[in-house]
Amino acid sequence: MPSFRSINVAIAMALAGLFWPGMAQAAADAPSAQADAAPGGPGHPDLNGVWQVLNTANDDVLPHPARAALALRQGPNGPVPAKEVVALGAVGAVPAGFGVVDGGEIPYSPAALKQKEENQAHWLERDPEIKCYLPGVPRATYMPHPLQIFQSREALLIAYEYAGAVRPILFRDPGPPPVDSWMGQSVGHWEGDTLVVVVTGQNDSTWFDRAGDFHSADLRVVERYTRTGPDTIRYEAEITDAQVFTRPWTMHMTLYRRQGADAQLQQFKCVEFVEELVYGKLRKEKLP
Fold it and tell me: pTM of the prediction?
């Protein structure tokens, strides 16, 4: 029986082949191809590998203390966990985090800040992650699941464990994306040793985290991937969205290369796990 790793690699390479026929062959020639593997030719860092963050940005990109739960209600002496998450106990709690936003503040417009606070208050009903929507960029990078970068001399593709999301990085700008989509259109280029990716054309249905931080369909993300060591990448994302924020803002974090036998993507096709949430209300006979 083939391993999860071989299955995921085969799927990713097949998808990549739809965009760049030479990528599958280049990957098949690894590791010899990796000696000079990089879009644009030799001299650029090799980003191949399985990577993952070690932070709590998916809970909240801003600095935050430990909390009893993401969903709270008012109790007799202050906020307590919402009844829907009481049974989870510590599993539903939020660990503290230093935050990943430069300056520790997101520059919301006054109206957008009210929307963020409303989103946070209604997290259980609104968070796209709960419904297994594709996470969008940059949230896909810092969800608590690994990602894998497939890089050849000619092309680059990023596959994510969460929901089986994939993202091809185009190195020839095709112009504005024809339609908005969950993961948008990613166009990359090299600035020295840094891979710069401009992401546009994302829809407005994804969030930055579980704390209700959101954006509009005008979102523009400029990502920067810089190798800082054999097993680390500095990841930076500049966020611009004039409909929601008063100025551009930036987040940054470190990606760590996974090592050992578990350095592979497993399956987390989460759609089937939310069927009851999405379709349960359609049952002819309601469950108690």
Answer: 0.83
SS3 letters for the chain? CCCHHHHHHHHHHHHHHHHCHHHHHHHHCCCHHHHCCCCCCCCCCCCCEEEEECCCCCCCCCCECCECCCCEEEECCEEEECHHHHHHHHHHCECCECCCEHHHCCCECHHHHHHHHHHHHCHHHHCCCCCCCCCCCCHHHHCCCCEEEEECCCCEEEEECECCCEEEEECCCCCCCCCCECCCEEEEEEECCEEEEEEECECCCCECCCCCCECCCCCEEEEEEEEEECCEEEEEEEEECCCCECCCEEEEEEEEECCCCCCCCCCECHHHHHHHHHHHHHCCCCCC
pLDDT, mean of residues 62-91: 90
